[in-house]
Amino acid sequence: MMMDKAQEGQQQSAAARVVHSQVRRIKQEEDERVKVHETYQHHAAEMRLVLRRDLGRQRSRSPLGRAARPGAISIGGDS
């Protein structure tokens, strides 16, 4: 009877280790997904800043700013 309880305890312990390793693997995969997501968010934020800066340069309301772009129409008498 004592051996049965000892064996049962060992089986439960082994089952707990299997579950524990599965939980550890799932948590590790979740952490990796979070890191990938954070990296993506960081790169997306950088790209938004770059695009916003570049678009700000393109939309100049000044005639001088418009003249600097290729294909600008001359307002004065120069062709």
TrEMBL record:
Region (Disordered): 1-23, 55-79
Protein name: Uncharacterized protein
Top-level taxon in the UniProt lineage: Eukaryota
